Amino acid sequence: MKFCSNCAQPVSLTIPAGDHLPRYVCGSCGTIHYQNPRIIAGCVIEHEGKILLCKRAIEPRLGFWTIPAGFMENGESVQQAAAREAMEEALAHVRIGSLLAIVNVMRVHQVHIMFRATLTDPAFGIGPESLESGLYAEEDIPWPEIAFLSTEFALRRYLDDRRLGREKLHFRDIDWRDGQVIMTDGHSQ
Ligand code: ZN
User: Fold this and answer.
1) Domains of the chain with CATH codes
2) From CA 184, how far away is CA 66, in angstroms rounded?
3) Among candidates 68, 108, 100, which has minimal Cα distance to 84?
4) Percent of the chain, pLDDT > 70?
5) Separation of 33 CA from ligand 1 center, angstroms?
6) Which residues surround ligand 1, an ion (CB under 5 A)?
7) pLDDT per residue over 36-77, tens digit each?
């Protein structure tokens, strides 16, 4: 950030009085521009035992497979965001079910919130952000071509739980240190 979104004057990175982290502070109007993590909402959609996957038509990870997921918008619930992403990426009407996973992706300042979901209409398609979409049996999921670590986590926990006939909530932190991915799992609930 270089300029204040309030008055268009330059900002500088300083620790405001009473705070403990550097913030972008406007030298002109004094506005403190806080930056906080963003929420990605998504869902693992099952239909007749198969999982709906989309091949990404956009960067990052163009050409890799993912579950419908994307940035939450202001004015919607996280469940509505997950359902909207299913519609946008796979033209899929879904019923959002239980909470599946919360993944903290520290380096990119994101929290990924993933739900279980089912199709309410068997018809689906290919949204503008996707190259393909399809229903995949567990043994046909293209694991080496899954786009994101959080997607793989959600899919694996979903399938584990399904095998065990349960619906737990799973936690994972993904961080990068010295070029290494560090993954830490919390206790499932
Ligand atoms: Zn300003």
Assistant:
1) 1-35 (2.20.70.10), 38-185 (3.90.79.10)
2) 21
3) 68
4) 100
5) 9
6) 4, 6-7, 26, 28-29, 31
7) 999 999 999 999 999 999 999 999 999 999 999 999 999 999
